[in-house]
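User: quick one - fold this with adenosine monophosphate bound?
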Amino acid sequence: MTLISYADFHARSLAERDAFWAEQARRIDWQTPPQQVCDVSRPPFARWFVGGTTNLCHNAVDRHAAKRPDDPALIWVSTEVGQERVYSFAELQAEVETLAAILVAQGVGQGDRVLIYMPMIPEAAFAMLACARIGAIHSVVFGGFASVSLASRIDDAAPKLIISADAGSRGGKVVAYKPLLDEAITLAAHKPARVLMVDRGLAAFTPVAGRDLDYGALRTAHHGQRVPVAWLESNSISYTLYTSGTTGKPKGVQRDVGGYAVALATSMDYIFGGKPGETYFSTSDIGWVVGHSYIIYGPLIAGMATLMYEGLPINPDAGIWWSLVEKYGVTVMFSAPTAVRVLKKHDASLLKRHDLSSLRALFLAGEPLDEPTARWIAEALGVPIVDNYWQTETGWPLLTVANHIPGVAPVSTRFGSPGMPMYGYGVKLLDESTGEELTAPNQKGVLVIEHPLPPGALQTVWGDDARFVSTYWSSVPGRQVYSTFDWGMRDADGYTFILGRTDDVINVAGHRLGTREIEECISGHAAVAEVAVVGVADQLKGQVALAFAVPREMPATPEAARALEAQVMKRVDEQLGAVARPSRVLFVSVLPKTRSGKLLRRALQAVAEGRDPGDLTTLDDPGALAQVTTLLRG
Ligand code: AMP
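Assistant: Sure. Structure tokens for the protein plus adenosine monophosphate:
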């Protein structure tokens, strides 16, 4: 068979867009087939598979349960509480229907929001799928976020019901969720009518009378109840997921039903090469987009078993993930560079102790993959390491190598580059100030996507179409294109390299954080007058947050400075969560600003990373940067 090049395949996916996606849409079950593949009549919005009715839960669970009821669907392993459970497709469907029945009995229906604030336990998966089943919109908030972050998301999503648990566990330490949730509900203006509590018996709590419901008791009461799937028009909302941007207010990335299902089904085949009956293991968390797409929906839609893991990668030892690969015959694995860097600090022989012959590839995403990390894991595993670049907004990989497309010549990977634009994405590099397209190799520009975004990408910002347009589609002069807010560069062979963010978003251990949110939290401390937070390079986490604060009164001694620093960090822990805690809070008398008062973040970041801060002609007070330099040396 003669093979076509990937570049030709990609070009066809754009030139014959509707034919391409109509073909992909056959991968899922439709109750009513779509009448129109893509409605582009109102740019920059796009509507996929218009008129078709389908359901994510049906495609992820029911259709497999009907054919292969006893095959494993959800494998749950917790090294935190020392438990393992395997749910077949039939068992998973029963649990999902039970939870759906509980939701329905509480008056939750199509279009209602359900906020999920849970650790990595099977009930979290049941909760997401139960919402999808009845057409309720889920909004999962990462369990590592604390009360203030959670409160702002409660207010934005305005959920009818919240599903939570008494506690998570991290490294053997119980992390109580209920006090954080209660505090968040107190802070929020919107009050959910009901809170459904999963009691793991880890942290005792007192239920709020008239509001809190006990999942255990309701599960017994509703077990065995059947809840038919709600057939939803393809453009109905499946979920919102909050992500950080330039402003302090998080954006609810909103996704559809049909487009998402088709995009995931296609990616599971073309990109991941996953087959029904096999096992997929993603080490992410349901609080992140990878957890939505590649712990829950993607693998299940593809008919694979998905392995959900609660625990650290190094507990009981750094071989735990490989022992799971061996035990459950994992064929496709998905993780983040930061996790590999953690493993790399441990004995590589832990890896060799296990039979990893089932594993075909390891996919890594979420942050830049550095060469030493890529080489170490490639040598240790002896399987392809596939870097893939995407965002919460896109829902599935934007740049990678897709080596499972029939009739298409394989593409080799190149260290330092996640790869090439995926089918369906009209990716361009543009000059930031003129908006002109950069076509010559090795030029740095803003990575953008042309309208329409492919299926699976965000529909809009929840409740705020204007923000969707003004944030994503209005940053390049004279052109309505979607900005990724990442710098990119393409080499002569078409490999794209990611060169960092164009905005104030930082990436700590693969977690996306907005520096503004952290600044707002710190400046709320009574002793702090002003603060700047920047992301600086870190060997293990990729980046860490570093805060420079102007105190109302300079601490008199180093001990006093340390004490204030500890207070500020505690405030961040309690309000935003430990993920957002800066590695240091350094006190300065003045921040580097331009004469017009604009904070020179890039200069601050450069000095903190020991680089040349560049052109400083606009700097108002040259002493400001000198002070930072001296402090950092200290
Ligand atoms: P999130 O929305 O949390 O997935 O974060 C998306 C951002 O993470 C992107 O805009 C990039 O800045 C960064 N990112 C994700 N994957 C990669 C990758 N493979 N290489 C480089 N940067 C990445």
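One thing worth noting: Residues 505-633 form a domain with the GMP Synthetase; Chain A, domain 3 fold (CATH 3.30.300.30).
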